[in-house]
Amino acid sequence: MKIALIVAFVVFVVDQASKWFVVFHLNLAQLGALDVIPPYLNLRMAWNYGVNFGLLAADNPATRWALITVALVICAGVLIWLRRAPMPRIAHVSAGFLVGGALGNVIDRILFGAVADFLNMSCCGINNPFSFNVADISIFAGAIGLALFAEGKRSRE
After folding, report:
1. 15 has catalytic annotation
2. Which residues contact 55 (CB under 8 A, 6 or more apart)?
3. Phi, psi of 150 (to 5 degrees)
4. Which letter, b or e, does each residue of 84-119 get, where b requires 16 or more Cβ atoms within 10 Å of its Cβ?
5. Residue 84 falls within a domain, yes or no?
6. Which residues contact 90 (CB under 8 A, 6 or more apart)?
7. How crowded is residue 79: how many other Cβ atoms within 10 Å of its Cβ?
8. How high is the pLDDT of residue 56?
9. What are φ and ψ of residue 91, in 5° steps?
10. How many distinct structural domains can be found in the chain?
């Protein structure tokens, strides 16, 4: 459990630091866009009021607090599951990625009412219209890691 909490803390700090640097220090909130290595890596400011790809997007307090609540319940559920079921170290690391990323996005929703997304990557003639952030990458990697490496009691048939 300790490794999951350490990874969650590191992911949370890296996510929040990257958002602060890009949104405020580089002033992406005002500029809207900065090309870093076009088209492979660009910074495109997007305030996401929903979940992935803007699904469930609604700029209202009920949606905002519902998404915060769901994220916190999922974090608690993952940590309880991790504590109760025997799992390999990689599952603890994966859980840390998921929890740290989810908490990073929760803080955005509390402070700004939306999640600050800014990374945009395109390649090979495909223009990606979506932006994401470090927390999104961490949540995705953590969920995949838990799906692949989490061990629980399995029935023998």
Report:
1. no
2. none
3. -70, 135
4. eeebeeebbbbbbbbbbbbbbbbbbbeeeebbbbbb
5. yes
6. 145, 149
7. 18
8. 53
9. -70, -35
10. 1
129 in a domain, yes or no?
Answer: yes
Rg (CA), the chain: 17
Residues 103, 100: Cα–Cα separation, whole Å: 5
* 123 in Cβ contact with 39 (< 8 Å): yes
For residues 16 and 106, the answer to whether their CB atoms sit within 8 Å is no
Give the 3-state secondary structure of residue 148: helix
Pairing of strands 115-120, 33-37: unpaired
Mean pLDDT by 10 residues, the chain (157 residues): 95 97 92 89 89 56 85 95 91 97 96 92 85 95 94 52
Give the bridge partners for 46, in sequence order: 117
Which residue range is the domain that position 7 belongs to?
2-53+64-149
Q: Give yes or no: 59 in active site.
A: no
Provide the token pair at 76: 């608690």
Instruction: Report yes or no on 58 lying in a domain.
Output: no
What's the confidence (pLDDT) of residue 53?
Answer: 47
**Residue 8 domain-assigned?**
yes
pLDDT at 157: 43
DSSP H/E element including 61: helix 61-84
